[in-house]
Design goal:
By secondary structure, this protein is mainly alpha-helical. The protein is built from twelve helices and no strands. Helix 1 runs antiparallel to helix 2.
């Protein structure tokens, strides 16, 4: 839910702002706002924590499907939908900092290196800092996986599978660079309170090795 919402906000931010830095800043701020809204309805932003399911385990996944846990996700989405729409509008109206044109997103940097379009660069911007600077799952990894999937779909080579050799290799390389950590806050050793803090981190070489590895995938 959140990752899709973040991309929708990124798309709208791209339409609203001609300057890429400002669009990225708008996408991050709006995503941050919508994540805060989501947490008023949910105990976590992490799917595995919400569903109490290990999606890497076929047995756990089967239990998720057979016990009806997935309907809990549908109910959560339905309950949050009105608030999500309101939060999206509010987030897109948040005033940007004076230096917004300098804003960078780790996720956007990956898409740039993968040859993504200007719109795609902004679409994933909200993934920054573990989606909306929340410190959750790595936004750069999420962006890379999305872009690679998109290209496979365009070429007609995408096939759903619980085990994908291409993604398995990417995850393996990612873990080697991240010291087998998945959460942004653990990889970076910190949380980012503002987009300025995140931009400064990227400008100072933060996650540069990880971004380059994902871009080479």
């Amino acid at each position: 839910m959140l990752w899709g919402s973040a991309m929708a906000l990124g798309t709208e931010a791209y339409r609203r702002r001609n300057d890429q830095g400002e669009a990225i800043a708008l996408a991050i701020n709006a995503t941050k706002h919508i994540v805060e809204s989501f947490l008023t309805k949910s105990i976590s932003t992490e799917c595995e924590e919400i569903t109490e399911t290990d999606f890497n385990s076929k047995l756990s996944l089967a239990k998720y499907m057979l016990t009806g846990k997935m309907f809990g996700c549908f109910n959560l989405a339905a309950k949050w939908a009105p608030d999500a729409i309101a939060a999206a509008h509010e987030g897109l109206d948040i005033e940007l900092p004076l230096n917004a044109k300098e804003t960078k997103s780790c996720a956007s940097e990956v898409i740039k290196k993968l040859g993504g379009s200007d719109e795609e660069v902004v679409m994933v911007a909200g993934f920054a800092g573990g989606i909306g600077l929340r410190g959750s799952g790595c936004g750069a990894l999420g962006a890379a996986m999305w872009k690679i999937t998109l290209e496979l779909v365009k070429k007609g080579k995408w096939k759903y599978s619980t085990s994908n050799p291409t993604f398995d290799k990417i995850i393996e390389k990612f873990y080697e660079v991240s010291d087998y950590k998945m959460e942004c806050s653990e990889i970076c050793g910190r949380y980012f309170k503002t987009i300025d803090e995140h931009t400064e981190y990227i400008n100072n070489g933060g996650c540069s090795k990880l971004i380059n590895v994902l871009a080479q995938s």
